[in-house]
Amino acid sequence: MSGHSKWSTIKRQKGATDAKRGQLFTKLAREITVAARKGVPDPEANAALRIAVQKARKENMPKDNIDRAIARASGSEGGAQYEEIYYEGYGPGGTALMISTMTDNRNRTVGELRAVLVRAGGTLGENGSVSWMFDQTGQIVLPVNGNDPEELALVAIDAGAADVQFDDETIEVYTEPTDLHKVAEQLTAAGYEPESVELIMKAKDLMAPEQDVAVKALRLLEKLEDLDDVQTVYSNIDISDDVLAAVS
User: Considering 40, 56, 105, 193, which has the largest number of Cβ atoms within 10 A of its Cβ?
Assistant: First the structure.
């Protein structure tokens, strides 16, 4: 199971409180609005919007909230105009960070990011400083739940997947960004129900710092993702079970 997926699992477990759920719905709504504004406000004709809506449904976001977020893209619901921006930086031990934000005020976002990074011993980097360490990749996560990973891998590869990885609990299917929805649809048609379908920034190579450094780095990821403007933080940390246990 990749570091990103392990960290996502921990976030879901920690996100059970009402306050965390409210913040999650706000971030999902922004993602839906930005995706709708980039194309047409129809999930069937806009792949990015379709993925954003599917993600919101998986988190049990109410349909009214989803509809309002789509309507906001056309201006019929008013509200702030958000843009999607990636920021790059370094965490403890030189770990690389790709920080996905949706903001209506770049100055506020940069100030908040810099403050959190500096307090944790990290730095905000220039454009291009770490992005070369990551590839934008489609990721489909499925539970094993009695499924034969080898059979699922054959279905996924026949559908156009680039790679399949699995452990005792989770199967991860990786695709080219443009093939994500097609592969997810064919897996669903074959009887496999994904836990998540999303575009991620996948580290080309992982680093495994000492446990105390890795724990500090994950604490930083948590603080960054608690910021209202931050959607997701990707890193190149190889997260061990011991490190997960220490932060969870």
Answer: 56
What residues contact residue 84 under an 8 Å CB cut-off, 6+ apart? 34, 100, 101, 102, 231
* Domain ranges within the chain, ordered by starting residue: 3-73, 83-132+205-247, 136-203
* Short-list 170, 165, 163, 175, CA closest to 147: 170
Nearest residue to 86 (alpha-carbon basis) of 119, 133, 42: 133
Distance CA 211, CA 199 (A): 28
108 vs 240, higher pLDDT: 108
CATH of domain 136-203: 3.30.70.980
Q: What is the CATH number of domain 83-132+205-247?
A: 3.30.70.980
Q: Is the dihedral of CA 192, 185, 167, 21 positive or negative?
A: negative
Q: Which two tokens stand for residue 38?
A: 């980039």
Query: Rounded CA gap, 109 and 106, in Å?
Result: 5
For domain 3-73, the question of CATH label 1.10.10.200 is answered with yes
Q: What are the b/e assignments for 1-24, b being 16+ CB within 10 Å?
A: bbbbbbbbbbeeeeeeeeeeeebb
- Map residue 178 onto helix, strand or coil: helix
Rg (CA), the chain: 18
pTM for this entry? 0.81
Q: What's the mean pLDDT in 40-65? A: 85
3-73 and 136-203 in the same fold: no
DSSP category for residue 80: -
